[in-house]
Amino acid sequence: MSNPIIFHIDVNSAYLSWSALAQLEAGSETDLRLIPSIVGGDMSTRHGVVLAKSIPAKAYGITTGEPVINAFRKCPCLVSVAPDHMLYSERSRQLMEYLKSICPDIEQVSIDECYMDYSPIAANYASPEAAAALIKDTVYEKFGFTVNVGISDRKVLAKMASDFKKPNLVHTLYSREIREKLWPLPVSRLFLCGRSSVETLKKLGILTVGDLAQADTAILASHLKSHGLMLWNYANGLDDSAVYPEPAEAKCIGNSTTLAEDALTRDAAARVLLELAESVGRRLRSSHCRAGLVCTEIKYSTFKSVSHQSILDPPSASTDIIYRTACALFDELWNGSPIRLLGIRTGKLAEEGEPVQLSLFDYAAPISEKQQKLDAALDQIREKYGDNAIKRGSLITPPHQ
Q: Which residues neighbour 374 within 8 Å (Cβ) at sequence distance 6 or greater?
């Protein structure tokens, strides 16, 4: 094939779908996907933000990211469930493993979406549309939740195609189709065109994607800088990026989570940091890497972000070391304000087999070796039985209880 064909596969309302399935498997007679429902916050206090919503909830005007209390004002009969990030990670792992069994050229970009290069498997199917439909239908039969699949010869267009009408559908948006399918849409539907950009474009008389595609790039750059030029490229279907499966030599490995309810105490933040450290440590070990740097990120409820980093000497993939370092950085950073997001990122990665120079006074080495064996044992258990097979006690019972 002369031109690449790229799929973008996106789980429909992932958090809500996965929580709904878990409840049904536990014996519930109500499917959250069929009633006005959300994932996010605390059902009793109605604090936090909406992380996911059902289609019936969307009909009430409920939007992702809005305060839960506002959602209840719009729909008093709304059902709210708390998020279960361990469950979501396991569902995501199962889906990605299945998709890689179809085609190994997968680039996962979030917990519920990925790109797939169709080219290596093209000979196995009558058409890209037939392959996408089979993937969509098999995911539903195998796992019980639905996905949308966008198809294009450009990565960004595949992403936007998957955002067309939902759920459980396949859409195409080839370069030759952008005038017909993309240009009539409001600019708010364009990938990475946020509320602020939409308002700026509106003042310039740019209301549709087509308006943007035909706008003067000099004017866009003067008002939106490089972001305006990127949006112009996307509006014209210009994107040369390829599907990049997980690289052998990653520049950094990290994870972050937006909290359903703002963290107000160090204990609450530490529990989140421990979950993140376990996720990051496991990914380091599965990539056979050690990190020479740890960075902790905090985003406050005001959306102000701060971060701080520290060198790891010697480099490590130990969950315990990553967690302790992240907590120390957190203690230096946190000003006591409510926390909306926490993240841990590791960098300065070295391959597992590279020699490490230890100080003569580095008495921690034997302990580190024991920790490595423990981490490896936990990884094997989770790989075989799932992420929820074994948990730390502090993640089962909050420290203050």
A: none
Token reading at 65: 């990211």
CA 60, CA 37: separation in Å to the nearest integer? 11
User: Could you give the angle at the alpha carbon of 279 between the alpha carbons of 396 and 115, nearest 5°?
Assistant: 130
Contact 158, 173 (CB under 8 A): yes
* Encoded tokens for 21: 């399935």
CA separation for the pair 134, 9 (Å, rounded): 12
Annotated catalytic residues are: 113
Q: 187-208: per-residue pLDDT in tens?
A: 999 998 988 899 999 999 999 9
Cα dihedral: 233, 239, 241, 243 (round 10): 130
Q: How far apart are CA 399 and CA 271, in angstroms?
A: 9
Question: Percent of the chain, pLDDT > 90?
Answer: 58
With tokens 């706008």, the residue in question is 215
Tell the burial category of 122 from Cβ atoms under 10 Å away from its Cβ (0-12, 13-18, 19+).
middle
Per-residue pLDDT of 266-300, as tens digits, reads: 999 999 999 999 989 988 888 888 898 999 999 88
- Burial-class residue 256 by CB neighbours within 10 Å (0-12, 13-18, 19+): middle
